[in-house]
Structures are given as structure tokens and as C-alpha cells.
Amino acid sequence: RKEVEQDPGPFNVPEGATVAFNCTYSNSASQSFFWYRQDCRKEPKLLMSVYSSGNEDGRFTAQLNRASQYISLLIRDSKLSDSATYLCVELVPGSGYALNFGKGTSLLVTP
Amino acid sequence: DAGVTQSPTHLIKTRGQHVTLRCSPISGHKSVSWYQQVLGQGPQFIFQYYEKEERGRGNFPDRFSARQFPNYSSELNVNALLLGDSALYLCASTSRTGANVLTFGAGSRLTVL
Fold first, then answer.
1. B47 vs chain A: nearest CA distance in angstroms?
2. CA–CA separation, B81 vs B24, rounded Å?
3. Is A101 near chain B, with CB under 8 Å?
4. pLDDT for B18-76, tens place per residue?
5. What is the pLDDT of residue B96?
6. Which residues in chain A (39-78) have CB-CB distances under 8 A to chain B?
7. CB-based contact A94:A12 (threshold 8 Å)
């Protein structure tokens, strides 16, 4: 099975810090990518889609590098409420709506 | 509007038993997908149903089956439970307009003893 790889962390950062996560994917045919956020023992929730041109939503910026097959998520001015697991996700090519999730990166923002 | 609802929220079974998990999609959503999330892992795709037909299946054994009803709700069935089936089972629904609007339910947490 083609994999999506993430550093599991945990990333411990102080409030206000900038933190970046990277994720690599092995299927060169993959076209669509997402970042999901998952709080402890809760369901995953879509954070943002990832585009080659970059995608910014407030303090969050996602980027796709097709040549190197990696996806990044940058969080600026971290808040305590950003503490969660961030899942890197690819839409499996040709599958319809099957999503292939990474194992997630754990972020803990401390006061 | 109600989101994706799943039942039961928690259940405990013993090895060899059978379990049925239920999911009601968001009103108007015709596609339902099932995912298994083992502790410490990302969710893994099990099935996708659209308009009552199976449209995709992940790498799971035949002990796993599902169906979708005329009202678009869905059931996931797992036979001959193994300890390794202990997981959070997530249902997600979407309209046919793209995976970027995939919405997950809160899940059914299954423990197999």
C-alpha cells in the first residue's frame, strides 16, 4: 500500500511559536491532499485542503511540493487550542473518495 | 442540522462475536464511508457506498461487510471478532461533490476482549 509518512512528534512548542509539519507521500499519481485535525478521542475534522499554489487560512498555511512529493503545514502564533494531532491525508487516485491517512503528528502548545 | 450520527458510541464484545455498527449521514448526503482507527494510527479506509452500491473497499478481510439502505444510512458488520479489531470505527458522509467535504461522525469505539 502506498504510504503517507509523518513524523509522529510530539512537537512541544510555547504559545506564540511558529511550528511546521512535513509529510511525504509515495504515490506520484496522487493529486489531492488535505490536513485534518484530530483532538484526543474525537473524530478527524478537515483543517484545510492543500494546493500546489499554497493555501492560507488565517494562521495556517499548507503547501504541496509535487516534485519532492511532500506536503507541509505551517502554524503561526500557536494557541493552546491548537494542541491536537494533525493528520496528513491523500485522496487515493482512482478510488472515488477513499482517503489515505498518515499516522498523525502530535502537537502540544504550552503556556 | 444534524451531523453524521453513529451508534453505539461504545461497546464491548468478546472474541468470536459479531458486531453491527450504524451510521446516519448528513441529510442530503448519499455517500457513506467507513474507516477503522486503531490507537496510535491514522484512520484506515474500509468501505465506501454511494447510492446503496459499494464503490470502494480497503484491504480488510471478508469478516468485514457493510450495506447502505434506501435512506442512505449504513451498517458495518464485523464477524468473528478478533482482539485486533478493537478500534474506533468512523463513518463519514459526503455529497457527490468532492472529498474535501467529507464529514466524520464521532465514531463507535469497539473493545474486543
1. 8
2. 23
3. yes
4. 999 999 999 989 899 999 999 999 999 999 998 889 988 999 999 999 999 999 999 99
5. 66
6. 41-46, 49
7. no
